UniProtKB/TrEMBL annotation:
GO terms for cellular component: mitochondrion. It comes from the Eukaryota. GO terms for biological process: isocitrate metabolic process; tricarboxylic acid cycle. Keywords: Tricarboxylic acid cycle. Belongs to the isocitrate and isopropylmalate dehydrogenases family. It comes from Diploptera punctata. The lineage of its organism: Eukaryota, Metazoa, Ecdysozoa, Arthropoda, Hexapoda. Residues 2-304 form the Isopropylmalate dehydrogenase-like domain. This is Isopropylmalate dehydrogenase-like domain-containing protein.
Length: 332
């Protein structure tokens, strides 16, 4: 796709193989991201992992200290779903909570699983969330918690986010219990703007929203640390059952490429691919099976590439600036 649009991005490819040591491949991937500062990532779970094997996805996020996960959820008018006017952002803690994978068998038949919440990382993700919301014009942040049941861990997270909120008088802040939040997401998702939460709640809520929007194959995810950013599918679904069948929806990964290009400052190219996806889904209604259509993965990609090629075939360096792009959008 990027080659089709003549987009000036080169890749250092690290590929998992059944014939190679997965731990060695993971180390190479982490070194590559540290060297380049940015990456696009597929799901690197091991389908044959043992019950005690730590997820490589989790190791990569922790090693790179990608403490904030962001999922932007916006309805596609051309996709039939229960709710049409969804436009929210989910920000979740990415390196603490239940997904630290700190479990052990203290006695035979007794498993202890540790849920770690620290003030430092709660402050980091809360500060990131408020800065992100201000940058993109979001007006309201809802902190999601279960402080009545887990008064210490979730209580610390909630207290921290409330303290950070005091420094952002231009952004409304409230909080909501996880149970109430899930119920309201199903009945009135359009009432939310930005949701901020610990790790496990973020995993649950992102899947709920993706399901409501039929967006598992559409929505991308962004992972940010102080020194690196990694872009991937929003639901982080491995999709082993779809492999090799030419039926998977490629749009979530293509949207991840849009996010990556924006992060790199290639705003025009990001816009071109975004518009191509939008036209393919909402105008041409070329939908894969997950969206109720009959198109194959190749059908979707080829249609998007058609728009990308048309929009970029006469574009040369220097590429349109962000201000020039805004003028282009207004003219459309």
């Amino acid at each position: 796709m990027l080659r089709c649009g003549g987009i000036p991005v080169d890749f250092d490819i690290v590929q998992y193989s059944e014939n190679e040591d997965r731990n060695s491949t993971l180390r190479n991937a982490i070194l590559s991201v540290r060297r380049n500062g940015v990456a696009m990532k597929g799901n690197i779970e091991n389908p044959n992992a043992t019950i005690r094997e730590i997820s490589h996805n989790v190791i990569l996020r922790n090693e790179l200290d990608l403490y904030a996960n962001v999922i932007e959820c916006k309805s596609y008018p051309g996709v039939h779903s229960k709710h049409k006017n969804v436009d929210m952002v989910i920000v979740r803690m990415n390196t603490e909570g239940e997904y630290n994978m700190l479990e052990h068998e203290s006695l035979r038949g007794m498993i202890e699983s540790l849920r770690i919440i620290t003030r430092k990382n709660s402050e980091r993700v809360a500060l990131f969330c408020f800065e992100y919301s201000r940058k993109y014009g979001r007006k309201k942040i809802t902190s999601v918690h279960n402080s009545k049941l887990m008064s210490l861990a979730d209580g610390l997270f909630l207290e921290t986010t409330k303290n950070i909120a005091k420094n952002y008088p231009d952004i409304e802040h409230n909080d909501m219990n996880i149970n109430e939040c899930c119920a309201k997401l199903i009945s009135e998702p359009s009432t939310f703007d930005v949701l901020l939460m610990p790790n496990l709640y973020g995993n649950i809520i992102s899947h709920i929203v993706c399901g409501l929007m039929r967006g598992v194959g559409l929505i991308s995810g962004k992972n940010f640390g102080d020194n690196a950013a990694v872009f991937e599918t929003g639901a982080r679904h491995a999709g082993w059952e779809l492999a090799g069948k030419n039926i998977a929806n490629p749009c979530s990964m293509l949207n991840a490429s849009v996010d990556m290009l924006e992060y790199l400052g290639l705003y025009y190219h990001a816009y071109v691919i975004h518009r191509a996806i939008d036209k393919t889904i909402n105008k041409d209604h070329i939908h894969t099976q997950d969206l109720g259509g009959k198109a194959t993965s190749v059908d979707v990609v080829e249609n998007i590439m058609k728009y990308v090629h048309k929009a970029t075939e006469h574009v040369t360096w220097p590429y349109p600036t962000l201000e020039e792009l805004e003028d282009i959008i207004k003219q459309e």
